[in-house]
Amino acid sequence: MASLAERLGHAPDAKLLIVNCDDLGSSAAANRAIHDVMDRGVATSATLMVPCPWALDAVRRPTAGGIGVHLTLTCEYPGYRWRALTGAASLHDREGFMPRTAAEVWDRADLADVEAECRAQIDQALAWGVDVTHLDTHMGTMQLDPRYHALFVRLGHDYRLPIRMFGARAEAVLGVPARAQASEAGLVHPDHMVDLWGRPRGALAERLDALRPGVTELFLHPVEDGAELRAYDPAEADIRAGDYAEMTHPGFAARIAAAGATLISFAPLRDLMRRG
After folding, report:
1. In this structure, which long-range contacts are made by residues 99-103, counting pairs with CB atoms below 8 Å and at least 24 apart in sequence?
2. Whole-angstrom Cα distance, residue 166 to residue 173?
3. CA-to-CA distance for 71 and 117, rounded, in angstroms?
4. Which of 50, 182, 253, 271 could form a disulfide with 121 if both were Cys (CB 3.0 to 4.6 A apart)?
5. CA 106, CA 142: separation in Å to the nearest integer?
6. What residue segments make up the domains of the chain, in order of their start?
7. Right CATH number for 4-275 from 3.40.50.2000, 3.20.20.370, 3.40.50.300, 3.40.50.10490?
8. Is this structure's pTM higher than 0.85?
9. DSSP codes joined into one string, the chain
């Protein structure tokens, strides 16, 4: 059977890399950073947090890469909160906002409300004119619980969109054959995933040097450093600002080139999936 790289028109040993920026629309500082790295050509993709206050600003700007929907059911910040588009009570905590953790969502949310909210977020992005390339999820909420993963796969099938796929370790935590479920539903997804959240700075270089043949998604969280970021995310501001600094350093693009990787977005995967 042909590999995903071959089905996309590349050699079987090709290294295809999607560099995705999570959390587009979460803040003005995130929007500036993500648009910057996409304009520079070092990021090829971003995913939009539709319920967030800065989401519409994000999609009003022209972008040089693909945009997916970052299905959002949580709001982790202590003083900066948002609500579900549908307003469903089971999707909110006692303060009236989305819960701070995925575990809270899994514990209290009605799955029918979750499905309605996810569809509302995708539909809103489409209504704003976004040429949606794929689906992923904020804080892994739709991927790390078997019930939610089944819904995640169904949404990808219904909207004919590729999905983010975690690796073997996450599949073991999930306890179900996530990749097999996606394949049986006719979904396309990257072969490999690189998640470097909170890792030491040298980890990115090591992972780029070790890229394997096939399609790899690397996702990062670049945000422009400054008062805005430090106010809403004091605990993890260094991680987000660090991602932005690393992506704009000349060594980042050079490392990708040295790895022999070809940058792509999720759009070719979506188009392949829709061709059947």
Report:
1. 99/73, 99/74, 99/75, 100/74, 100/75, 100/76, 101/74, 101/76, 101/139, 102/73, 102/74, 102/139, 102/140, 102/141, 102/144, 102/145
2. 11
3. 9
4. 50
5. 9
6. 4-275
7. 3.20.20.370
8. yes
9. ---HHHHTTS-TT-EEEEEEEEEETS-HHHHHHHHHHHHHTS--EEEE-TTSTTHHHHHHS--SSEEEEEE------SS-----SS--GGGS-TTSS--SSHHHHHHH--HHHHHHHHHHHHHHHHHTT--EEEEEEGGGTTTSSHHHHHHHHHHHHHHT--B----HHHHHHHTS-HHHHHHHTT----SEEEE-TT--THHHHHHHHTPPSEEEEEEE-----SHHHHHH-TTTHHHHHHHHHHHHSHHHHHHHHHTTEEE--SHHHHHHHHH-
Residue 68, phi-psi category: left (phi > 0), alpha (psi -120 to 50), beta (remainder) = beta
Place of tokens 């932005």: 244
